[in-house]
């Protein structure tokens, strides 16, 4: 299935270098993860994480500092 370009993509790319968090909300199977993965494919030194991995989610919930050191320290952008 071909990728569908969304208007939101340009807005996200424009704001990736800001320190604020970008949250993408929507119903199940509306393309949120596909959109983010597509954007991250074009970036260098970026990391895509999904909290669908329970261990990643647990680390984030239990120890944010260690989570940031492990995942965000050596990247420009982390999702």
Detailed description of the structure:
The structure is a single chain. This protein is mainly alpha-helical and 79 residues long. 46% of the residues lie in helices and 5% in strands. It contains 4 helices and 2 strands, in the order ααβααβ. The protein has helices at residues 7-15, 32-41, 54-62, 64-71, and strands at 46-47, 77-78. It has a two-stranded parallel sheet with strand order 1-2. α3 (54-62) packs across α4 (64-71).
Question: Got a strand count?
Answer: 2
Q: Roughly what is the average pLDDT, rounded to an integer?
A: 83
Structural class: mainly alpha
Low-confidence stretches: none
Instruction: Compute the CA-based radius of gyration.
Output: 13 Å
In DSSP terms (H or I, runs of 4 or more residues), the helix count works out at: 4
Secondary-structure element string: HHEHHE
The helicity comes to 40-55%
Main beta-sheet strand count, sense and barrel state: 2 strands, parallel
**Shape category:** globular
Distance from N terminus to C terminus (CA atoms, Å) equals 24 Å
Strand-residue proportion: 5-15%
Strand order, main sheet: write it out. Answer: 1-2
Describe the structure concisely.
The chain has 79 residues and is mainly alpha-helical.
Topology:
Elements: H1 7-15, H2 32-41, E1 46-47, H3 54-62, H4 64-71, E2 77-78
Parallel strand pairs: 1-2
Helix pairs in contact: 3-4
């Amino acid at each position: 299935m071909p990728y569908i370009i969304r208007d939101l993509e340009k807005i996200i790319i424009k704001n990736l270098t800001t320190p604020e968090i970008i949250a993408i909300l929507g119903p199940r199977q509306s393309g949120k993860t596909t959109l983010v993965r597509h954007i991250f494919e074009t970036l260098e030194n970026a990391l895509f994480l999904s909290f669908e991995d329970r261990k990643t989610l647990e680390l984030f919930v239990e120890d944010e500092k260690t989570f940031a050191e492990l995942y965000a320290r050596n990247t420009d952008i982390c999702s």
